[in-house]
Amino acid sequence: MASTEHATTTGKASTKPKVYRNFIDGEWVEASTGETFENVNPADTRDIVGIFQKSGKKDVDAAVEAAKRAYAKWRLVPAPRRAEIIYKATAILEQRKEAYSQDMTREMGKVIKETRGDTQEAIDTGYYMAGEGRRMFGHTTPSELPNKFAMCVRQPLGVCGMITPWNFPMAIPSWKLFPALIAGNTAVIKPAQDTPLSVFNFVSALTDAGVPKGVVNIVTGFGSMVGTPLTEHPDVRAISLTGSSEVGRIVGAACAQSFKRCSLELGGKNPMIVLDDANLELALEGALWGAFGTTGQRCTATSRIIIQKGVYRKFLDELVARAKKLKIGNGLDESVDMGPAVNKKQMETDLEYIAIGQKEGAKMLCGGHRLDKGEHAHGWFLEPTVFADVDAKMRIAQEEIFGPVVSCIPCNDLDHAVEIANGVAYGLSSALYTKDVNRAFKAIRDLEAGITYINAPTIGAEVHLPFGGVKQTGNGHREGGIGAFDFYTEWKAIYVDYSDRLQKAQIDRPE
Ligand code: UN1
Prior knowledge:
By secondary structure, this protein is α/β, with parallel strands linked by helices. 37% of the residues lie in helices and 21% in strands.
């Protein structure tokens, strides 16, 4: 068998695409199915980024078994030692940031300055979590009985399954892997089929830093063939998914069957509220970035702009003028503002919603079309699209689109805006533009969302704060920050009785 050692492709199209294998127990291995799939550049579908394994249950079983074996040793490595390896891996990521970011743009399309941000988000997470190797605090507390000591510590869970998305192909795997590993867990990761290369790059940094074999395993392929057996595997203790609500519902139900811990990070329909007193220039810049950054393909994307009537027309005129000026193209070109949709299916979904919006009677002020001429001929490019006079109940104001389509809704005042903002099934991110501190704090209190920004757009969460949402955005867990350990550890309560006699809690009540 020819060796296909993993190495970065540094963003260059090659004539013969490289074959990538699964990474199981420290070895690069072919899938049991003998099948593969292509990872295609969405900006130019003639460019095949790599050939990846189309794995099945057997491969998942092998990976879980390796992770289980590795867990027996890894959990006993002192957390500060584990953290040193993570620190080293992060330094390697820093060295390779440019190459990995170029690979990422090539495999999923977002512009290079954003993929640099994605890699940086993984770096930030690595350094932050490495510090936790010497913290991960438990607590001590008095016992109700004399000569008895009480404390609790965090313990790892075991093998964790991770199903990661294509929109943040390195940052989101890092949110999951870093805290899981620091806490002493091992992992099997299934990357989105659109972005396996970024996960390979990420894991290469980990293994080059000395993460022992079997601690992190990658199995590539499709949801039904890899995700399902991973979710159902009896030796997997927890599943962390970032993905669609549709998949979240399936994964959540499957995890419930075996009482697996399950973290779901799903959809959003994130509102930005612009009040009459806002700094309009700031709000416009924020709207453009929030709605069309990452081609609108963020869970945190600004997909509704709720604008107070006094500035409604002015804001829209300017927004449309600016949206029309955005340069759409291959994200490797530094001057491009917005890349393609990640794949054909996503582009078709975007176009479908554009048609739905028009049918519902919303006013399309710009965009609405696919770009497929000239430099756009071989990619999944779309115009940035702005809908105005949208009714809060319309489907384009209720459902997650995940594309460069924003719905603008007029409102009377802050209360009305909050009512509209909260009137959806999701609650991930939210933003308010105002100069009035009183109204800002009311909105912070009343917006049903896991994240609220004042005078900043809905995107741009930092890694040391909790990330996650309310309502149907998820199931209550948070990634990022210290809260990540609430998912990746179990509390153990410990009592040490040094009285040398039987003491009965709740029954012996010392004077
Ligand atoms: C996502 O969209 O799934 O806050 C993650 C942000 C990024 C992370 C987004 N730091 O927009």
